[in-house]
Write a structure and sequence with these properties.
Number of helices: 8
Strand content: 25-35%
Number of domains: 2
CATH superfamily of the largest domain: FAD/NAD(P)-binding domain
Structural class: alpha/beta
CATH class of the largest domain: Alpha Beta
CATH topology of the largest domain: FAD/NAD(P)-binding domain
Radius of gyration: 24 Å
Bound molecules: flavin-adenine dinucleotide
CATH architecture of the largest domain: 3-Layer(bba) Sandwich
Distance between the termini: 40 Å
Largest sheet: 7 strands, mixed
Number of strands: 21
């Protein structure tokens, strides 16, 4: 069991800034993030786009913003657990929380900050009833081990960067048929050109259409049925199907934690950003309240007020005073920008 003052669920910009606000108040945080990297929507959805409405930064790339936030929270040494989805949160008899992740990590925390944005990003899956039983064996939504496809007949589904990158990569080691519902692609033009060149050299094939069925024996895939634009259904022999249709956010397990919800968003008050469950707070895009605007700067404000509320929640009866980073030696010590006099004495 990993013990921490506060567990932050989600490492988007607001989860990251929560580390900072909690750290200023002397609270340590562990951060769990479902994606392999921190950054939330900024990194997953628009890493190279410029943002123009972050105070005091006239323009800042989305990935750059995440890098700046990550740098800003370094003094508080947050511990990140990426590629882990928090699936269960329960309160123990002593009032503390136990949270469990998809990978089996267990956290004990005094308070929880849900900074889960639009929810955990999950792959868009085939909406065919026969697909679920094949998942992991012959139907895949990510490439865990490319060697699995060596020498096989494989259908790659999708028209974005990841589908084309993998179709091109696998064309050298497998028989690849790329299936996409349109002849227009979202992938980089260079990848689209490369794919067409490989098709012209008969090193891979492209089929425009929709996947409408899978033929399988048990978990072994035999063929993918594709309905082409003309309405004909073609049977494409394949032992593996790699579906790369991108990611979509899903509230997922959060819906079962007993939190008050309004249209898949967590209801909070605007003084503390507390949910209906004492000790669980919600900040950023995941929450809702009258006047809510899903902006990064709103989330930063919410993170600050939630941190004060959490400090008071964890230390009942103790008054939490506002201090300025410009003038407070205590805050500056936590930030590591001044050395305490006793540390100077000790070093002498
Ligand atoms: P998110 O960024 O969504 O991060 C939440 C994280 O939580 C995700 O990484 C998710 O994987 C993780 N998570 C969810 N559930 C779990 C779980 N159970 N366990 C573990 N991890 C979990 N805002 C602006 O202010 N200015 C802009 O110019 C702007 N431009 C935008 C452009 C685009 C194209 C988009 C899509 C959004 C834009 N936004 C902009 C909105 C802004 O990105 C969001 O307001 C912001 O990302 C919200 O941050 P967050 O930390 O609350 O959530």
């Amino acid at each position: 069991m990993i013990t921490t003052d506060v567990l932050i669920i989600g490492a988007g910009p607001v989860g990251l800034f929560s580390v900072f606000e909690l750290g200023l108040l002397g609270l340590r945080a562990h951060v769990v993030e479902a994606m392999p990297a921190v950054g939330g929507q900024c990194v997953e959805l628009y890493p190279d786009k410029p943002i123009y409405d972050i105070p005091a930064l006239p323009v800042c790339g989305a990935r750059e913003l995440v890098e700046r936030l990550t740098q800003q929270i370094q003094p508080f040494a947050p511990v990140f657990h990426t590629g882990e989805t928090v699936v269960r949160v329960a309160r123990e008899a002593d009032g503390r929380f136990v949270a469990e992740t998809s990978g089996g990590l267990r956290f004990g925390a005094g308070a929880i900050v849900v900074a889960a944005g639009l929810g955990a990003f999950a792959p868009r899956k085939l909406a065919l009833p026969e697909a679920a039983a094949l998942e992991g064996a012959s139907v895949h939504y990510k490439v865990a081990d490319a060697a699995l496809f060596d020498g096989r007949e494989i259908v790659v589904a999708g028209g974005g960067d990841s589908a084309l990158d993998w179709a091109i990569e696998l064309a050298d080691r497998a028989h690849v048929v790329l299936v996409h519902r349109s002849s227009k692609f979202r992938a980089a033009p260079a990848s689209v050109a490369k794919m067409h060149a490989l098709c012209a050299e008969q090193r891979m094939q492209f089929l425009e259409g929709d996947i409408v069925g899978l033929d399988a024996d048990g978990t072994a895939l035999n063929a993918v049925r594709v309905q082409t634009r003309g309405g004909l259904v073609r049977r494409v022999e394949a032992s593996q199907l790699l579906v790369l249709w991108g990611l979509h956010p899903s509230l997922g397990p959060i819906a079962s934690w007993g939190l008050g919800l309004d249209k898949s968003q967590v209801l909070v008050d605007t003084a503390r950003f507390a949910t209906n469950v004492p000790g669980i707070f919600a900040v950023g895009d995941i929450n809702t309240y009258p006047g809510k605007r899903k902006l990064i700067l709103s989330g930063f404000h919410e993170a600050a007020l939630a941190a004060f509320a959490i400090k008071e929640y964890l230390n009942p009866g103790e008054k939490v005073h506002l201090q300025y980073t410009t003038t407070s030696p205590a805050l500056q010590r936590r930030l590591g920008v001044v050395v305490a006099p006793d540390e100077i004495d000790a070093a002498a």
